[in-house]
Amino acid sequence: MQALRLQPGDDLRGALAGRTGFVVAGIGSLVSAQLRWAGAAGPTGIDGPLEILTLSGSLTPDGMHLHASVSDAMGRVWGGHVCAGCVVRTTAELLIAPLPAGSLARVFDPVTGFTELVVQER
User: Fold this and answer.
1) Where is the PPC domain (predicted)?
2) Would the N or C end of the chain have less CB density within 10 A of its end CB?
3) Parallel/antiparallel/unpaired status of strands 87-98 and 21-36
4) Cα–chain center distance at 110
5) What domains sit in the chain, N to C, each tagged with a CATH number?
């Protein structure tokens, strides 16, 4: 396992680009978030400050699939697919399970219409 702390101003997706493995857990705070709800065509912006309650997903050099739940100052909670524009406010503390390069990839799946995870057998 690998621990990673992101700094204020970091973009969650940008900071994880190019890695291979799984985000097992994540907590912290955001200035704002861009989350895509299930079935939506694009992201919805959520103004902060926000607390990251959960963060998990898969990381491949050619893309990632991250989900998060966040709460605002009133305790309202939103969750969805993490898009670019989730900017760290004070910190983001992540636990990552790295995997060897080449062990995971993302390939377009005509059935789902999305790039989906492919596990490379070794």
Assistant:
1) 1-120
2) C
3) antiparallel
4) 23
5) 2-71+93-119 (3.30.1330.80)
Query: What is the reported pTM?
Result: 0.90
Q: Provide the 10 A C-beta neighbour count for residue 119.
A: 10
User: How many whole angstroms from its chain centre is CA 91?
Assistant: 15
Which has the closest alpha carbon to 68: 87, 58, 82?
A: 82
Q: Is the pLDDT of residue 70 over 80?
A: yes
11 band by pLDDT with thresholds 50, 70 and 90:
very high
Distance of CA 122 to the CA centre of its chain: 26
Measured CA to CA in angstroms, residue 121 lies from 82, 100, 102, 103, 109 at distances of: 28, 12, 10, 7, 18
